[in-house]
Design brief:
This protein is α/β, with parallel strands linked by helices. It is built from six helices and twelve strands. The strands form two sheets. The protein has a nine-stranded mixed β-sheet with strand order 6-5-4-7-8-9-10-11-12, with helices on one face. The longest helix has 32 residues.
Length: 224
């Protein structure tokens, strides 16, 4: 009698084990079959969501559990204006792509190439709303200028028509910004951050045009 009970108990344990295996297999199969439900893309300016999704090979919203973050990142960094990508998987089968783009700063007249925030240049048929650097800048000065100019808001950069390197006997890091509104701005790399306040400054000038000196003190000389 005891043997029959033991055999019955072992048989129940075996069935329970098989049932657990089947449940696990079913759950895993379901997870592997679920596609990505949504792709959230943040902080992209130069590339559209569609361009990023296509470059990353995500246009078919592949199975979520099989997404390889390192492969996606490698593909996206082939785009010349993408500096880095932070990729994360979120609950609800959501893929999040946080894009860090290089900033397009200006077009160099001598090379007809765009200068980027990391100091590199790109030769492209795309047109960006950035100023034109009209003359030569010594490499060390330009390096510092790029570092500081990168901190300026894109909305302010778009207000500059041309940039001229204009050193004098007292300041080897001085530049002139020719503004789209007709004003001139004298500035140097040490005072570059104050240029972010340009809009708030000119709104107080009662539509006068002139020269804004930000290189040696903050004052405005009216021309008209």
């Amino acid at each position: 009698m005891k043997k029959r009970v033991k055999r019955k108990f072992n048989f129940v344990k075996f069935l329970s084990f098989i049932l657990i295996i089947c449940i696990i297999y079913f759950i895993v199969s379901c997870l592997f079959s679920i596609k990505t439900k949504n792709i959230v893309i943040l902080n992209n300016q130069y590339y559209t969501d569609e361009q990023i999704i296509e470059t990353a090979g995500l246009e078919d919203y592949p199975r979520f559990i099989l997404l390889n973050k390192s492969i996606i990142k490698k593909k996206l960094k082939k785009l010349e204006l993408i500096e880095d990508v932070k990729i994360s998987k979120k609950l609800g089968f959501i893929l999040k792509l946080d894009i860090k783009e290089k900033k397009v700063l200006y077009l160099t007249r001598s090379t007809n190439k765009y200068k980027l925030s990391d100091g590199s240049e790109i030769d492209t048929t795309n047109k960006y709303n950035v100023p034109l650097l009209i003359n030569y800048v010594p490499s060390e000065v330009e390096k510092e200028f790029i570092e500081e100019f990168s901190q300026i808001d894109n909305s302010i950069i778009s207000l500059v028509s041309e940039i001229e390197y204009s050193k004098n006997d007292f300041d080897s890091k001085r530049f002139i910004f020719y503004m789209n509104d007709g004003n001139l701005v004298y500035i140097n790399t040490n005072k570059m951050k104050t240029f972010n306040k340009y809009v708030s400054i000119v709104t107080k000038l009662d539509n006068h045009k002139g020269i804004l000196y930000l290189d040696s003190g903050n004052y405005f000389k009216i021309i008209e």
